[in-house]
Amino acid sequence: MYREANHPTMPSPAATLASRLAAAVLASLTAAALLAGANAARAADLRIGYKAEISAADPHVLDAAGRNLWGHVYETLVGLDNALRPVPLLATAWRQLDDRTWEFQLRAGVRFSNGEPFTAEDARYSIERAIKLPGARTFRTYLKSVAAVEVTGPLALRVRTRSPNPVLPQNVGMVAMLPRSLGANVREADFAHGSAAIGTGPYRLVAWEHGQQLTLSRNPDYWGGPQPWQRVVFQFIPKEPARASALLSGLVDVIDASSASIAEAFARTSGRIRIVSATSYMLNYLQLDQARAVSPYVQDHAGQPLAANPLRDVRVRQAISLAIDRDLIAARVTKGDSVPAGQMVPQGFFGFAPAVPAPRANVERARWLLAQAGYPQGFRLTLHCPNDRYLNDAKTCEAVGQMLTRAGIRTEVRTLPYSVYITRATSGGAGGKPEFSAFLLGIGAVSGDSLEPLVAVAHAQDKAAGLGANNRSGYANAAVDDLIEQAMRTMAPAPRELAQRDAAQRLAADAGIVPLHHLRAAWAYRDGLAVQPRSDGFTYAGNIRPAPPALPQR
């Protein structure tokens, strides 16, 4: 599954973050408050400073924070490990009966928190409810291929699809399993108040206090065995400096969405605060207008519109990519919070193409390509970017603008709040088309598979077929489309991955998009814990365990 960054992700740090954190470090250390998290009274509790607030209590409402936090209460048929590889959860096995039929064997001995046994009837109810749930934020996009859900035994489920879908297990794996006894009329308020908060997960809902915190208690009857924490509290702290201060003062044990600025300040704690990170699925990349014969934000050096859109020339797009020093951005701009990228997914994800490394900057080659394309003196370009969406988004764009200018493309960078930016990037131009000529976006392979990002961004736009939904540039290559469609109907993993790799190579050769980097997901935590990072940035209590402190306690 892909996720375009239309939900809160990693917020940009404030300009004065480092100085504020430094002050917080000094104040906190003098009080020795860090030890508060380790005392006996709190030994069985885990408190997490969490960047995002849950927007809905119903687990069938599509919400990134909800998927993470409600995942402690409700489980799915198929899970994803820390590297986003499919693993058994409430389904112990699955197989293809034919190109349009999947069979799932469900786990025996599982009970919901109200004591009811989990059966295939509950699984069918849950999937059908997720498909039918009204509203804009649902899982219908991921379940659109499902034609029928059939119960073939107490613990056997069959899912038929309208067309071949090789990622059906991951698609179905997005859906929380609920007891069918909830019926057709269960509502959001029932989940929020707790009467319908009935799951099979390792924790139970105690209370959801809007804007403040979510409190969970250990499920003593969990099929997966006892969990290390009696109580887990997610405190909603959207601002990064406030999360850092909460950790330093001992109010929380772990915080998510940590940045390099936090790491610099935490270095002053003499090892009592630790950092762990993983390369995330979130790609930041540029889309370049290839649809219009004349592009509104591409001009000659006198400020007049160019008669022909240079971004339609592959040599110009390649020059733009080669002008960007991704290693320098990672080292100086994001300070380690990003990993240079040349394709949709990072290494280790399904469909990653080893033959497509992150391009190395080559300004001389970029200038030569521009000259070959008929622009020896370059041209003027406006690069549009959000300034509050991705980690270091505005700073990254400023750096890209300087690099393009050095290569001969005199670039003006304009940044906007995301709420304004995404509307203009999608439909702000003439006829409701995308407005910008060059612009930064983010997309993520939520399931650790490159197929759906390729479908969404690299395929030519075909709204009726649901292809190219996020292709705002007008990029189109019939050979790439054919490879993507081949992968969509290929059920065997090896040939499917080969098709996706080939598509990634052709997309890179075209510079159809300009990948910049994958963001890193990072957590900061107190000494005496061990935290396993995840590539989706999710924070699971099961990934946080007590550990012997590295430093002597005083």
Automatic annotation (TrEMBL):
Pfam families: SBP_bac_5
Segments forming domain Solute-binding protein family: 86-461
Entry keyword Signal: yes
UniProt cross-references to SUPFAM superfamilies, sorted A to Z: Periplasmic binding protein-like II
Signal sequence region: 1-43
CDD domains hit by this protein: PBP2_NikA_DppA_OppA_like_2
One Gene Ontology cellular component annotation held by this UniProt entry: outer membrane-bounded periplasmic space
Keywords, alphabetical: Signal, Transport
Protein name as catalogued: ABC-type dipeptide transport system, periplasmic component
Species of origin: Cupriavidus taiwanensis
